[in-house]
């Protein structure tokens, strides 16, 4: 019994051989696994605090919405931890169009207003709900999803991701904010040329 207690005491007091964290070094090389780690001697308590989500985002734009990220490039402490966060602001009439996060699942927590949100499964089944303050909804990794202001007042949500760099592809911008030719998009999207050119004009695409 004494030997067991001695071994337990040693295991609890000995420093771990594994790193507790890996605060990202923006000056070092990066890889799909994340950024290089800063030397622990250069890390301070302030590195583990991010205050950016307290500030409302600027919703004066075409979608009347703003996303303020606390991802690895801006919050290096989440590097290697498999988590990150963001703030979502939706003005009345605001919308986050259909989009995906290739590298993360997402949880959305409404803190103000009402938000209609949903995702579409790989079987093309839609899952849609109107969320009020205090409600939470989850969006599985890689699936198309959206958020829309469902009330007449600004809506706010805090979003959590299962990756420090979740990635983002907004479907409308992927299709119409680039230089893919209108003729090709017409073939692959089944939209008429006039509609494609209109959307390219709105979103800055060419071709």
From TrEMBL:
Disulfide bonds: 22-37
Gene3D superfamilies: Jelly Rolls
SUPFAM superfamilies assigned to the protein according to its UniProt record, in alphabetical order: RmlC-like cupins
InterPro entries assigned: Cupin_1, Germin, Germin_Mn-BS, RmlC-like_jellyroll, RmlC_Cupin_sf
Organism domain of life: Eukaryota
PANTHER family on file: GERMIN-LIKE PROTEIN SUBFAMILY 3 MEMBER 3
Family in the record: Belongs to the germin family.
Entry's localization field: Secreted, Extracellular space, Apoplast
Residue span(s) of domain Cupin type-1: 51-197
Signal sequence annotation: 1-18
MF (Gene Ontology): manganese ion binding
Biological source species: Platanthera zijinensis
Pfam family of the protein (one): Cupin_1
Keywords: Apoplast, Disulfide bond, Manganese, Metal-binding, Secreted, Signal
Record protein name field: Germin-like protein
Gene Ontology, cellular component aspect: apoplast
First-listed, main subcellular location of the protein, grouped into a coarse class: secreted
Residues at which Mn(2+) binds: 99, 101, 106, 145
Positions with a binding annotation for oxalate: 101, 106
Matches recorded under PROSITE patterns: GERMIN
């Amino acid at each position: 019994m004494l030997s067991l207690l001695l071994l337990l005491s040693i295991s609890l007091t000995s420093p771990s051989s594994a790193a507790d964290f890996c605060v990202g070094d923006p000056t070092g090389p990066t890889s799909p696994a994340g950024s290089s780690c800063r030397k622990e001697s250069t890390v301070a308590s302030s590195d583990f605090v991010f205050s950016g989500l307290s500030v409302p985002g600027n919703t004066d734009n075409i979608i009347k919405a703003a996303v303020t990220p606390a991802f690895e490039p801006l919050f290096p402490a989440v590097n290697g931890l498999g988590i990150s966060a963001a703030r979502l602001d939706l003005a009345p009439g605001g919308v986050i169009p259909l989009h995906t996060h290739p590298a993360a699942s997402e949880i959305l927590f409404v803190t103000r207003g009402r938000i209609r949100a949903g995702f579409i499964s790989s079987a093309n089944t839609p899952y849609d709900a109107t969320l009020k303050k205090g409600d939470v909804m989850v969006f599985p990794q890689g699936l198309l999803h959206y958020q829309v202001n469902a009330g007449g007042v600004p809506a706010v949500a805090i979003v959590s991701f299962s990756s420090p760099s979740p990635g983002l592809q907004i479907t409308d911008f992927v299709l119409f904010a680039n230089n893919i030719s209108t003729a090709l998009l017409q073939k692959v999207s089944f939209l008429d040329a006039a509609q494609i050119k209109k959307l390219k004009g709105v979103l800055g695409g060419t071709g």
